[in-house]
Amino acid sequence: xxxxxxxxxxxxxxxxxxxxxxxxxxxxxxxxxxxxxxxxxxxxxxxxxxxxxxxxxxxxxxxxxxxxxxxxxxxxxxxxxxxxxxxxxxxxxxxxxxxxxxxxxxxxxxxxxxxxxxxxxxxxxxxxxxxxxxxxxxxxxxxxxxxxxxxxxxxxxxxxxxxxxxxxxxxxxxxxxxxxxxxxxxxxxxxxxxxxxxxxxxxxxxxxxxxxxxxxxxxxxxxxxxxxxxxxxxxxxxxxxxxxxxxxxxxxxxxxxxxxxxxxxxxxxx
Length: 270
Hints:
Blueprint: H1 8-24, H2 28-37, H3 40-56, H4 67-79, H5 87-90, H6 96-108, E1 112-118, E2 129-138, H7 141-148, H8 152-157, H9 169-180, E3 190-195, E4 202-210, E5 213-219, H10 228-237, E6 242-246, E7 251-253, E8 256-260
Parallel strand pairs: 1-3, 5-6, 6-8
Antiparallel strand pairs: 1-2, 3-4, 4-5, 7-8
Helix pairs in contact: 1-7, 2-3, 3-7, 4-6
């Protein structure tokens, strides 16, 4: 069972803090600047400098791939973050293998976090993974939002995360939190499930392994949202339960346990 709902005042404050965290991210320099100034905009200026530094580091890879190609691929990955990778949408100027080389360099540098498709018929999840189907997340939500160029004013005064989630940042936050759950000596690997059939497309954002069980996890940026894919997966795979992460308080709908986004670590490795 998930924890009982917390006091609404506490829940609202936690959501407010979460929104601030998503905007400034977890890069130490940005966090320090926010603590010192209490200004999201000052923290964003630090993020701008960090982005410049990150891109200048591309220089070290120029012997492997041209800088222009690496920058083009990185910028395109940012624009498509959280979506299933379609190489032709990244660039029509380069061959698929050239794009894959760039993505692998970005992954090795820790700038992107892949989420790999799996058929999820049993554990381990990697046994039926399909590297041809993957989603890519960016290393930090603050950096991602800065690169995306979203209007911070609208985001700051908004009542939920819908403006932020135009770039799937809630899902990205969940991916980064799940990544942190892996032992320090283990290679983190995240998985999702996707089915493409005529009139029956479905996707579950994440799958986690708890013992010998596969638990589906769906991420929502607000307090509402349908869960057809989650229910479909649970029926097909006979899941004992599923997890929904949203802006809702702790609760439960039948076999679906609800955790607030700020408490996503509560169900990891339980």
